[in-house]
Amino acid sequence: MTRRVSIFGATGSIGQNTIDLIARDPGRFDVVALTGGQNIARLAEDAKRLKAELAVTADPARLDDLRAALAGTGIEVAAGQAALIEAATRPADWIMSAIVGVAGLAPGLKALEQGTTLALANKESLVTAGPLLMATAARHGARILPVDSEHSAIFQALVGEDIAAVERIVITASGGAFRDWPLEKLAQASVAEASSHPNWDMGQRITIDSASMFNKALEVIETKEFFGVSPGQIEVLVHPESLVHALVGFRDGALMAHVGPSDMRHAIGYALNWPDRVDLPVERLDLARIGQLNFRSPDPARYPALDLAQQVMRQGGLAGAVFNGAKERALDAFIAGHIGFTDMAGIVARVLDKLTSQSGLVNDQITLDNVARLDHLARKGVDAEIAMRG
Ligand code: NAD
Ligand code: MG
Fold first, then answer.
1. pLDDT-derived band at 1, boundaries 50, 70, 90
2. Cis amide prior to 275 (ω within 30 degrees)
3. Distance CA 348, CA 281 (A)
4. Scanning 149, 292, 305, 383, which has the fewest C-beta atoms within 10 Å of its C-beta?
């Protein structure tokens, strides 16, 4: 039987890896919707190749381009936020959530409301609205399958286990582009330097977030929200080889490690075929050739984002929405050349402090509207911080 699948963020790094797997096995899948942003040519080409029913661009100004690119194909086209939400209501068995940023939250929630299985690459959904996402899935009997490599690894290590027997969860971090740079040099790091990752090939934003470890900070929060463990049970280890993706420690002292190549098609393929395992086109590791795996504790002075994650988890509520919104805006400012690499963490910390100390603000109920409100306030807070610096 074929499975009906949609891909949100189809033109991005995760989206393209998902398409690679689906295109290798076209008889097994019916593609419902593909969504993208500015890359209309890529979106149209993949919609044709995969015989999608619908193609959506997030940008309303690009609707005519998309229509022209798909003229005569019979593929439906649409554009804008409402169209993205509508696409998430189209009956499907499996939806890949691979939009980058908080923009991925609303379509993912809509998919869960239909009872659709959500393969979740968009970690920002769990960071900004974890309790809402998990409750929506439970209410509609929908399943969330983690796609972030660390969380897929944890998920796999927990098969057949009781979460109550888990003592700790260790997620690994490559250390990013600057792991071996002298600390004093970090302030001068350029956007191009921050955009190259030692082990993984990913979108630009997550690659820069890996260099600053904002990505790992998001992933620590993601771990808490998805697996329901307490902040004190989550550890981060720098592991330069990026081959051990996560370890789960049990109360009897056992550590179950997940080891695999740094290729997102493993985690995507696991979620795509779950609960089965199928042949995947990823490298088979030759551990004898690799010889050694290294681990060390992250230096808090190099990676201040990790402490911010602890603060966010202690605060709870909408603090994650503030943290993520401020981080996204600070990252925009770094990419635009308005602030330096190391300025990002300081600015996010100040906005987080300001907004979490205002009474009640982050203690409001976690709803889509409140996430959007706090996200907006956080972005405005970052702009004000940058303006103050002159
Ligand atoms: P990317 O930048 O390569 O692609 C992002 C996709 O989202 C594109 O299709 C783009 O058109 C779309 N998009 C961007 N802004 C949008 C908006 N406002 N509305 C609708 N669509 C929009 O990003 P990526 O690296 O593929 O990452 C996607 C998600 O997966 C992120 O949440 C990231 O943290 C997560 N993730 C990525 C990797 C990886 O290997 N790339 C690994 C783990 C987790
Ligand atoms: Mg990850």
1. confident
2. yes
3. 39
4. 292
Q: Verify whether ligand 1 is closer than 6 Å to residue 36 (CB atom).
A: yes
Q: Take atom 18 of ligand 1 and give the residue whose Cα is closest.
A: 103
- β-strand 94-97 against 117-120: which pairing, if any? parallel
Instruction: Identify the residue whose tokens are 């009906």.
Output: 4
Ligand 1 atom 7 nearest Cα: 99
> Radius of gyration of the chain from Cα atoms?
20
Strand order in the sheet with 54-57: 76-79, 54-57, 29-36, 3-8, 94-97, 117-120, 144-146
Residue nearest (by alpha carbon) to ligand 1 atom 4: 12
> What is the layout of strands, in order, in the sheet containing 234-238?
234-238, 166-173, 244-250, 255-259
Strand 29-36 to 54-57 pairing:
parallel
Give the residue-averaged pLDDT of 199-206.
Answer: 93
Report the 10 Å Cβ neighbour count for 248: 25
Helix, strand or coil, per DSSP, at residue 256: strand
Q: Is 176 in the pocket of ligand 1 (CB under 6 A)?
A: no
Ligand 2 centroid distance, CA of 70 (Å): 34
Q: CATH 3.40.50.720 region(s) of the chain?
A: 3-146
Q: Quick one: pLDDT at residue 89?
A: 98
Q: SS in 3 state form for 118-175?
A: EEECCHHHHHHHHHHHHHHHHHCCCCEEECCHHHHHHHHHCCCCCHHHEEEEEEEECC
pTM, full prediction = 0.98
Q: How far, in Å, is the centroid of ligand 1 from the Cα of 95?
A: 14
Considering the four listed CATH numbers 1.10.10.60, 1.10.240.10, 3.10.580.10, 1.10.1740.10, the one that applies to the domain covering 316-389 is 1.10.1740.10
